[in-house]
Design a protein that fits this description.
alpha+beta; BirA Bifunctional Protein, domain 2; Threonyl-tRNA Synthetase, Chain A, domain 2; 3 domains; 9-stranded mixed sheet; 5-stranded mixed sheet; 18 helices; globular
Length: about 600
């Protein structure tokens, strides 16, 4: 097999699909625009959901990209040899164009051709959907793989749990997938397959064939627009191609490991405890660098994405302390990651000053209380009868020393304790009631669905954005949104709370435009044309050279990819329910449309 660096692997993948007529598009933000079920973009499909549902993409029907992703569900596992919170997903897309008979031979070509990955055909196993009472067995995929050259004994039929891609919500596009695996060692027994955890197989790529629509009744109907959605993890593939044991042994981390050795005076891999601490510090700092450098501009806070970001930074500070990393170390480490990734993700270089400033501020803030908090934890745990750490004490560590619940849980588990989460949450709610401060525990940006009510509210965010720029300042810019069929939530930069008069003026401005019943005109144009015509380009770098623009008279002109009403008269009466702080320098408006 050929030897790759992370840069050559990215380019090899993208150029291969460009040769197949695909348009290269940039990575979208890590803060999802169209999926309200997750905090971060966790897969390549999230930014493209509207187009999988039938919206026309400005770049066409064949797309390829490398998408930044963050998954924090296994954050406590980071430190072992395989978990990371940030990763890159190589992908290609067919939006109602080609399907299995094209995609499977292309997958085989990219994997096996000496011009590309050059993996021997006999080292590849594939799995396909075995079928069930609702959807038939995917014989077509199996046949195509065999025609390409995969041995019949290396083709496995697996159940829905292994080879099915469900809809983004409870209904919508879905279908069977086929996964490609590298055969690493002999099978553990006659029933061994890629679904086995013995280590005989390692997944390298996944082709999803969206050919069904799951209806509200639970039935699976043929999808009018059949789509292909593939995902190849850059880090995992890089390990396979270079023979590296873990991602921390690849060029993605080489410079950062060397810098951490200098900063701590230790050596990565010298012992198990040091190795685990290194991996946590490296992974969390890399993820924090990408989140802080994101175009959506999130910062550490006590809610939503900001809470996860704060938890990552504080966990890095704690484990950095264990290996001798002194104050300012995370910023110096972040600089290595900025340099490593800047050519691929230029927003990191553009936002580097913010990255370093926020890391320094959060590191300084937590370092001042970390030692005292650890002492307090050590003191109280010696006096706890049994093995349950009280929830009220866990909340006190959070309230006084800034320890996230998860940090107390981790510290307690290291000493054989469990933590009373219910008691912690009760103490948290009691504190909220006393301080009259609410906190939403689940954050989401974008559209929950494309229902008529959601579409109307999405259109209203354009009016709200324009009204804020007229009433408050032209410097106001959108920093996030969350839209369901009941209400909209809109985050924007502004240094202070709005006055009652300003809120009333914004409401009146929006309702005047609604009363005027202005048409909403969509036009595709290049990014340069959109800028010349003064369209607001909130996410313009995501779509490539051609973008969709929406004009509402002369009142609002924005680049956007979501669904819109035909005219403002369809919206109803606009009312602001609440205006509040979201995080430092960021305000949040919640609003509704009333009939």
């Amino acid at each position: 097999m050929k030897n790759f660096t992370s840069d050559t692997l990215r380019e090899t993948f993208l150029k291969f699909f460009e040769s197949k007529g695909h348009k290269r598009i940039p990575s979208a933000s890590l803060i999802p625009e169209n999926d309200p079920t997750v905090l971060f973009t966790t897969a390549g499909m999230h930014p493209l959901v509207p187009y999988l549902l039938g919206e026309k993409h400005p770049a066409g029907k064949r797309l390829t990209d490398v998408q930044k992703c963050v998954r924090t569900g296994d954050i406590d596992e980071v430190g072992d040899d395989r978990h990371c919170t940030f990763f890159e997903m190589l992908g290609n897309w067919s939006l109602g164009d080609y399907f299995k008979k094209e995609m499977i031979p292309w997958s085989y070509e990219f994997l096996t051709s000496p011009e590309y990955l050059g993996i021997p055909s006999d080292s590849i196993a594939v799995s396909v959907f075995e079928g069930d009472a609702e959807v038939p067995r995917d014989e077509e995929a199996a046949r195509l793989w065999q025609e390409c050259g995969i041995r019949p004994e290396n083709i496995y039929y697996l159940p829905r749990s292994a080879n099915w891609w469900g809809p983004a919500g409870t209904t919508g596009p879905c279908g069977p997938d086929t996964e490609m695996h590298i055969i690493r060692k002999p099978k553990c027994g006659p029933d061994c397959s890629p679904a086995c955890n013995c280590g005989a197989f390692m997944e390298v790529w996944n082709d999803v064939f969206m050919q069904y629509n799951k209806t509200e009744s639970g039935a699976y109907e043929p999808l009018a627009q059949k789509n292909v959605d593939t995902g190849m993890g850059l880090e995992r593939t890089l390990c396979i191609m270079t023979g590296a044991k873990t991602v921390f042994d690849t060029d993605l981390f080489a410079s950062a490991v060397a810098r951490l050795n200098q900063l701590t005076g230790r050596t990565y891999g010298s012992d198990e405890e040091t190795t685990r601490a290194y991996r946590i510090v490296l992974d969390h700092t890399r993820t924090a660098t990408f989140l802080l450098g994101d175009v959506k501009g999130i910062v550490p806070s006590n809610t939503d994405q900001g809470y996860v970001l704060r938890r990552l930074i504080r966990r890095a500070v704690r484990y950095g302390k264990n290996i001798g990393l002194t104050a300012g170390g995370l910023g110096q480490l972040a600089a290595v990651f900025v340099e490593k990734y800047a050519a691929v993700y230029p927003e990191l270089k553009e936002n580097s000053a913010k990255i370093y400033a926020e890391l320094e501020a959060e590191e300084d803030k937590f370092s001042k209380t970390l030692e005292g908090g650890l002492k307090e934890f050590g003191k109280v745990i010696t006096h706890i009868p049994g093995k349950v750490f009280p929830g009220k004490t866990a909340f006190r560590l959070y309230d006084t020393f800034g320890f996230p619940f998860e940090m107390t849980k981790e510290l307690a588990e290291e000493q054989g304790f469990t933590v009373d989460r219910e008691g912690y949450e009760n103490a948290f709610r009691e504190h909220q009631a006393k301080s009259h401060a609410g906190s939403e525990q689940k954050f989401a940006c974008g559209l929950a669905d494309h229902k008529e009510e959601t579409t109307r509210l999405h259109t209203a965010t354009h009016l709200l954005h324009a009204a804020l720029r007229k009433v408050l300042s032209e410097d106001v810019a959108q920093k996030g949104s969350n839209i369901t069929e009941e209400r909209l939530r809109f985050d924007f930069n502004f240094p202070r709370p709005m006055t009652a008069e300003e809120i009333a003026e914004v409401e009146k401005t929006v309702n005047d435009v609604i009363a005027a019943d202005l048409p909403i005109v969509m036009k595709e144009m290049t990014v340069d044309e959109a800028r010349r015509e003064n369209f607001v380009g909130l996410f313009s770098d995501k779509y490539g050279d051609v973008v969709k623009t929406y004009a509402i008279g002369d009142f609002s002109k924005e680049i956007c990819g979501g669904p819109h009403a035909a005219s403002t008269g369809e919206l109803g009466h606009f009312r602001i329910v609440k205006e509040q702080s979201s995080s430092a320098g960021i305000r949040r408006i919640k609003a509704v449309l009333e009939k």
